[in-house]
Amino acid sequence: MDLIIRGENITVTPSLQDYAEKRISKLEKYFNEPIDTSARVNLRVHNTDQVVEVTIPLQGLLLRAEVGEEDLYTAIDGAVTKLERQIKKHKTKINRKSRQGLRQAVQNASSDITATKPTEEDTLDVVRRKHFVFKPMTVEEAILQMDMLGHSFYVFNNAEDNSAAVVYRRKDGRYGLIDQV
C-alpha cells in the first residue's frame, strides 16, 4: 500500500511521516494479499485540534477515518483504531454472507436428497445411537442447555407435566417447543 501524506497549514516532519507510515502499514495484516492502492493521509490544524484524515479506497469499499486530537500522534493512533474497527466489521459481514450462502447450498442439496425416494436397494440403517437420562427441567433451562451445547434442538423431560419435549431454534432466531398432547 502506497501512502500519500499531505499537510494543510502544517509541515510534515520526517519523524511524523515515519510514524504515520509505520502505524498505517500495520493495517495490511488484515488482508490476505498485499493491497494495491494508495492511501491518502491528510494532516491539518483546525482551531486547537490536530486533525488526521485517512482515506483508503479499495474495490467495493472505502475506508475513511477522521480524528481530531490535541496531539498529532494521538490523532494518528485514533484514526488507525477506527480503520481497524471498520475492516473487522467488513470482514465479519463478508464471512456472515458466505456462511449464509453455504447454508443455503447445504439446505438446497439436502432438499434434493430428501426429494428422491429410497428404492428397495437403499436401506435405512441407523449408523449411530445415543442413550440419555433425562432429568426434569423447565423450557427455559432446556433452551439454555441447547445454547450452551451449540445445538439447534434439545430433547428434555418437561418438569411441568413430566412428558418428553423438544425445544428448537427457528430460522428467525426465536425458539419453538414440541411437546406431547
Distance between the termini: 65 Å
Task: State the helix count.
Answer: 3
List segments where confidence is low: pLDDT < 50 over at least 5 consecutive residues. none
Helix content: 25-40%
Q: Give the biggest sheet.
A: 4 strands, mixed
Instruction: Report the count of strand segments.
Output: 8
Taken as a percent bin, the fraction of beta residues is 25-35%
Order of helices and strands: EHEEEHEHEEE
Radius of gyration: 28 Å
Q: How would you classify the helix and strand content by structural class?
A: alpha/beta
Principal-axes shape call: elongated
What is the average per-residue confidence, as pLDDT, rounded to a whole number?
Answer: 83
**Which strand order does the major sheet show?**
1-2-3-4
Brief summary:
This protein has 181 residues and is an alpha/beta fold. The chain has three helices and eight strands; from the N terminus they run βαβββαβαβββ.
Topology:
Layout: E1 2-8, H1 14-25, E2 38-46, E3 49-58, E4 61-69, H2 72-115, E5 136-137, H3 139-149, E6 153-158, E7 163-169, E8 175-179
Parallel strand pairs: 1-2, 5-6
Antiparallel strand pairs: 2-3, 3-4, 6-7, 7-8
